[in-house]
Here is the input.
Amino acid sequence: MRRNDMLTRAECNVLRGLAIIGIFMHNYCHWLPGIVRENEYQFRQGNVAGLWYYLSHPDWNLPLHLFSFFGHYGVPVFLFLSAYGLVKKYEGETSCGVAGFLLSHFLKLFRMMIVGFVAFVLVDAITPGSHHYRLLDVVAQLGLFNNVLPHPDRIIWPGPYWFFGLMMQLYIVYRLLLYRRHWGYTVALMGVCVAVQLMLVPDGETMNRYRYNFMGGMLSFGLGLLLARFESKLKVETVTQSVWLATFICSTALIFFSIRSVVGWTLTPVWICLSCCALVKLLPSWLQRPLDWLGIVSAALFVCHPIARKIIIPISRQGDVYCGLLLYIVASLCLAWLFNELFKLMNRKK
Here is the structure.
């Protein structure tokens, strides 16, 4: 990383670590009975009311409520980092062709997805409550276009794998529309996507499908592109810890304020990304080290955590909530290490 870069390579890994903690904890907690649900693809005022109730009447399950409601915001952080990395990698002196770029990124996503998908399908088939797959659903998952099908939340299984289709769409949008283009193209696309979202019924099926596709992630993705292109003008090296602390406090306060309305909910990813970036700058080294490792294995953890969840979550549903959660965390981290070693072996043999 260059001197004027806002995020070093290690800090990017720490951000990935924070993001994957939110995602894999959310994907367990929000399946538990009695836990407040999130506003991820649709905005429901009742979910916000539920969160405020538990914040004002805390109990032993408060951490589960918080992870359930907020954990999915790890996705915007990943989109932000992906865009930041694309600019750093591809917008230097060497240009990249459209076909080669899209094929390489499709294969990168497919290699990660297929290992976890096959393992999950086998586990799902021999455990209670197995999913009924249709031919088109499987083909769409393998082709990374299942997000565009009707009712994506009912056909994508395991659910977190919608992210692969989302990333493929954003790679296409980046290379065809935004690659080395004037920053105005990025801002215009972000504005259009936000404007259209604000015109949709907040809890309708159209909103659900809209946010399953690249339009719902364009705001955080665009922020990553713009930061990478303009960070040299921000003089990040002169920013003091006090400024980062103030930024973290203000952006975190804006998160809790913005989730209460449809307009604020639409803009929440901005405050999430800003808050996480500031937090990374404030964390002591003893906390950054384990988060850095989590960032390194984040792709493997994302791929494998649905497998651990499917097997272990009955323990929590039967009453031993935190026992099941602890077993899920331990199993997911061990599986992530194994999957990461497999990914490294696959990459060496390419």
About this structure: The chain has 16 helices and no strands.
